[in-house]
Amino acid sequence: MSEAQTVEISLTQVGEYEFNVRFDGTAIANLATDETAPLGQGHGPNPSRLLATAVANCLAASLLFALRKFGNTPAPITAKARATIARNAGGRWRVPRIEVDLQLADATASLEHLDRVLAQFEDFCVVTGSVRQGVEVDVRVLDPAGAALPLRAASPLAS
Questions:
Q1: Residue 76 three-state SS
Q2: What distance in Å separates the CA atoms of residue 42 and residue 142, rounded to the nearest whole number?
């Protein structure tokens, strides 16, 4: 396995629930995120939409990679994602399901080794593989001086 990589982003609140996202260490343009009404103004995608975007984009790129790996030069691929947002047993909003449709523009008969492509492309998808297995998330809350505040253990209803 190769060395681990780190991706860093910074968020700055600019409105009620609107944040400016900076992709640290890159030339990527900033992104506005915001919650939908009634909390926010919808000035950008909310985290649930970003999660669905990340899964769909990663799967589409992985399919493209696998097709090219077997010598294909596919026409542009499109993807559509549908994230279900529902309350869990504790009454908290969660994303229990994301459905993704990947649309090929090429006739399947014209694609080399399509059976092998379809058997392995999902394994190349970093985001989908991570989401499916669960992602460890370490959280710290820092005071203005940068000191970590003690966090209470989450109740079982918070999951």
A1: coil
A2: 28
Q: How many helices (H) and strands (E) does the chain have?
A: 3, 7
Within 8 A by CB and 6+ apart from 43, the residues are 15, 18, 32, 34
The pTM assigned to this predicted structure is 0.87
Instruction: Centre a 10 Å sphere on the Cβ of residue 58 and count the other Cβ atoms it contains.
Output: 21
Reduce the DSSP state of residue 25 to 3 states and report it: coil
**What is the rounded CA–CA span in Å between residue 106 and residue 145?**
57
Neighbours of 87 (CB within 10 A): 10
Calpha distance 92→34 (Å, rounded): 19
Sheet with 10-13, strands from edge to edge, namely 10-13, 19-22, 31-33
Instruction: Compute the distance between CA of residue 102 and CA of residue 109 in angstroms, rounded to an integer.
Output: 17
Strand partners of residue 77? none
pLDDT tens for each residue of 81-137: 999 999 999 999 999 999 999 999 999 999 999 999 999 999 999 999 999 988 777
Q: Across all residues in the chain, what is the average pLDDT?
A: 92
